[in-house]
């Protein structure tokens, strides 16, 4: 064999070896990449998929579940859960739902059938079970009314720390049942959160003690459970989604003036025209507050700030 032919063969073999090595490096890198992607997807899919209606419930579920859960929320920030309709994308996103935590909001009823059809294996957990529910139209506790009398029940359970503590227990129980491998973590998170809620409960009670029996005014009756727990009265401008009649509005203004209320709490999700009329009549001002904010602790403290600020001075 000539020297030139031998050289060409050696060159070809060398090129082949280099090419083979490059292919092996590429394949190894690709496989590592796919393993990483699959591992991340596996980690994500291993989380318990939770569906809730509003952000405050998402907050409680995330605090209990920690890294072992993923939580989807039906109502976007700034929207009213009593009228908002879920989008087609949201319907598609719930296919993996394993637990649907309900509190009694209208959006849950509208969406419930979709959950049943899209995620038939999902467990529905009623967080209001075992709680003393009350009519939505005012802030007074009642064992009457509700479904039997045709009155709507107040679904804003979380505005009461006592209710939140009970709901946290239900959330933890549901997670332990569906994911027993992480029982210790769920129970530790439950205990930690309950300690914080108990401290917040005492803090709020201490701040409101000088005003026991006083009334605060809101546009939408979303704070009845808060009022009941801390011995206040909620006066709502709106009742069951309806603006007050002129006579009712007049009586409300008289009551507000008598009680010395100077600020009216208005949810940004609602029209404030009726509330503005009351504010002008009493020489007061409107204060924005939404019970739908996600940070439970900051939101409850800001509500207490608004209510304390609404009183001119404690009654003697």
Structure description:
With 316 residues, the protein is α/β, with parallel strands linked by helices. The protein folds into two domains: 48-135 and 155-204, Rossmann fold (3-Layer(aba) Sandwich), CATH 3.40.50; 211-310, 3-Layer(aba) Sandwich (Rossmann fold), CATH 3.40.50. Helix content is 51%, strand content 11%. The strands form two sheets. Strands 2-1-3-4 form a four-stranded parallel sheet, covered by helices on one side. A four-stranded parallel sheet has the order 6-5-7-8, sandwiched between helices. Strand 3 (99-102), helix 4 (106-118) and strand 4 (123-126) form a beta-alpha-beta unit. Helix 2 (55-65) packs across helix 5. The chain is globular. The termini are far apart. The relative contact order is 0.10. Residues 24-44 and 139-149 have low confidence and may be disordered.
